[in-house]
Task: structure prediction
Amino acid sequence: QKRVKVPSRVSDILYGSVATPVNPDKKPPNLPVDHTHQWTVSVKGVNDADIAHFIKKVQFKLHDTYANPLRMIEHPPFEVSETGWGEFEIQIKLFFVPECTEKAQTLFHFLKLHPYIGDKAELELARQQRRPVLSYVYDEIIFNEPTEAMYDLLTSR
Ligand code: SLL
Result:
């Protein structure tokens, strides 16, 4: 494929997780007893911008303690929601649209369930209120010497 003469194009994404402690009074009936949190890991555009025009699908690789740890998400929203008890690193593999001819790229996200709050009283309060724990990162996907088709795709937005 013909390449355009610009060195690179960049697309901004946001990825990470939000985790909430399960309310013991409102436990879903089928929740395993040792599962303390519900969480969602996701890849999205900044300010909810569309990313599906260049990302075809996203594979999330969970910890081996999960049944079917490889989760392929073929359509937006590119996210996986689960419950569990522990923190671990999630591999997030981005597959690009065919026009792009780029290889898949892998990101790593550490699933955070517990708040990092130094002040003990404040930490206790956060726990009591079951405050969601957010851990998100802004990143940019760099397409070096994009194909013409990809360049058009990225600049038409
Ligand atoms: C830890 N290294 O020991 C980590 C592993 C794994 C968390 C955490 C599985 C839930 C299920 C789950 O929460 N795994 O049983 O499906 O802290």
